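Hi again,

Forgot to attach this to my earlier email, sorry! This is the prediction with coenzyme A bound. I've pasted everything inline since the attachment limit keeps bouncing my files.
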Amino acid sequence: MADAFVYDHVRTPRGKGKADGSLHEVTALRLAETALRAIATRNNLEKGSVEDVILGCVDPVGEASGDIARSAAIAADYGFQVPGIQINRFCASGLDAVAAGAAQVMAGQKDLVVGGGVESMSRVGMGASGMLPAVDPSVAIPSYFSPQGVAADLIATKYGFTRDDVDALAVASHKKAAAAWAEGRFAKSVVPVKDVNGLTILAKDETIRPNTDMQTLGGLKASFAMMGEQGGFNAVAIQGHPEVEKINHVHHAGNSSGIVDGAAAVLVGNKAAGRKAGLKPRARIRGFATIGSDLALVLTGPVDVTQRLFARTGMTMKDIDLIEINEAFSSVVLRYMQAFDIDPAKVNVNGGAIAMGHPLGATGAMILGTVIDELERRDLNTGLVTLCVAHGMGTAMIVERV
Amino acid sequence: MNLTHFRFETDADGIALATWDSPGKSMNVIDQNVMAELNQIIDHVVATEAIKGCVITSGKEAFSGGADLTMLQGLGMEYAKLVKTKGEEPAMAFFFEATARLSLLYRKLETCGKPFAAAVHGTCLGGAFELALSCHFRILSDSDKTRVGLPEIKVGLFPGAGGTQRVARLMQTGDALQMLFKGDQIKPAAARSMGLVHAVGPRDQIVQAAKEWIKANPNAKAPWDMEGYKLPSNKVHSPAGMMIWPPANAIYRRETSDNYPAAKAILKAVYEGLQLPMDLALRVESRYFAQILRTPEAAAMIRSLFLSKGELEKGARRPADIPPTGQGLFAQADVRPDHEGPCQDRGPRCAARTHHAIGGLFHAQGL
Ligand SMILES: CC(C)(COP(=O)(O)OP(=O)(O)OC[C@H]1O[C@@H](n2cnc3c(N)ncnc32)[C@H](O)[C@@H]1OP(=O)(O)O)[C@@H](O)C(=O)NCCC(=O)NCCS
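Structure tokens for the complex follow:
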């Protein structure tokens, strides 16, 4: 089996995903194009040399419809020979896109690919493509479907995380993200989104609030209490986990992942392709896995998939230097650290989606990039990236520096 | 026509009146013979140029209690027999054809090209209300005795002759699901405001009003068969649908712990049916109907809550020597009115509460 290497990665800054967000004026296509163009330009990729562009996009409708990956490759001037495919595994799509590309490289069927993702949550809107698992009784009922916020509250309740616990993690996320920006830790990988004249529209993540503290968070109202009660979802959650008597609604706007716009691209290839393009590999993809996990908990997939990936690679948590687990909701991260008894100092060291936002289809590729940059900066070796996924799934990948 | 369950006459304006009055019965019920006669009536109305349309009413104090559940039970037994003699597939084909027949008959009425109206006084439930729903115009008497509704869910079934589809096309999806889940008997004024019927009037005027309507609407079609018809709650897969379906599925589980196949089948039939034109929607409903009819839950509920209800209430099979236990429905249902003796529970206080809940004939006894 061939090795798949990460040669480079870029991401756009994340803009607030509302009408007053800086990237609201920018189309999803343009976001994806920005990332694709940047990675091709700075690596001097020969036109037509990329064999596939695989982009995660969770709501591929409207301006993100019709296989946006192919459109973005054309917009980024990759050459008509370069095909594209858009995939969707909800929040892990960006990481799954990289994994799909890597798998083809490992299998010897492609030499050089770009994986990544794009989501314009301000323009297309979360849920714009519908949500079959919530709607069709034939799947919603056996799935114990509940909205992710309610599931996050179930996780907090079941595993004993209090409002203070989840808020503290959110405070830390903002502090770490602010510090990372202040120290220029993202500088290597964030490419500004520019207008057609080259004027910068946004160069920095837009939703970080360095002054976040327990007091201000304490004042925010739980976001999913009414939905859980009136929509019947609390009852569904409890039927899935009958040892829970009552759902403790602890998540709110300040400790849930932010809704943002953004895109990312990761250049993956085999050794020969890198040599041919004159590139030095930055990391080797050691392994990746996906899994289906408890349906009522919805968001505990990272635990299960990490176990699967450890079994597959013969590794343990001791082999991992840094972890990026997507901060979909505070309790997801807390449960992950609890399950493996992880030192918090190894986890999301530069903050996460609570501070910087979670552009659904792109995040997986973004945090893969974050961990590679940070391994390099700290001169460490091995990183693990994982994301929880709607409808009870998880994806994880282990990378090591070469 | 050769009719025994209906009287049929046509007035000077060419409007027919079919008066349902099954001989020798206190209540009209739908069985194979009634279905055959209804079929004849539809054919006759369509074929006779002088007939402009037809009003269906009842010659009894009630309109009808709906389908004959023993007929459905009989079909189930026939199916079981066929499984043994002919195998699963042919048996199922027979069963599906037989259980979909009423729905197809009503659809034939609805699309026959001439207006049909239902003039309803008294109880009109289940398959009988589904008949009314397939008519182009429905008027109820304002009598205190008049009730419409689809109570099938109460015996573990669901309306399988178009009820789920027509109700879900007459009112907001959330309201339709509630109505189908509850199986309530609905009074005339409420039925009117829910949009289930078009009018309410004095008992002695409903037939005339129905005839007037037919005169004024010679080319009647159901709303869902007309160009430009829009679902009351918009499309299933739409932002509006996202407000309806996820909570509907969750609330189903909350209320039933997913132990109620008929209620789940209603959800599925409405969800799938609303995405289809009427004929296919009805076929989907029929498929779920045939499935639910064969569930042990439905068989047990029909037996206990309908066929054997009288015996149950008399405590016919209750062992005489076991005293009632517990304070809930269980104990109350368990009690034979003529039984005197102790009620027991895990302690004297519980037993006293049991005693209180059940009523006077018992004395408390702790275990
Ligand atoms: C939780 C959620 C519903 C909140 O949405 P929202 O109410 O629109 O959130 P907003 O960003 O407008 O924030 C609401 C309030 O909280 C405040 N707030 C948010 N973070 C804060 C912080 N760190 N410090 C202080 N205040 C904060 C905002 O200022 C705002 O107050 P305002 O209304 O006075 O301006 C939404 O963010 C969400 O759904 N997140 C999860 C996304 C998701 O499911 N992703 C996919 C699965 S992981």
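Residues A 91, 148, 174, 209, 212, 216-217, 220, 223, 253-254, 256-259, 328, 358, 360 surround coenzyme A (CB under 6 Å). The CA atoms of residues 20 and 122 of chain A lie 9 Å apart.

That should be everything now.

G.
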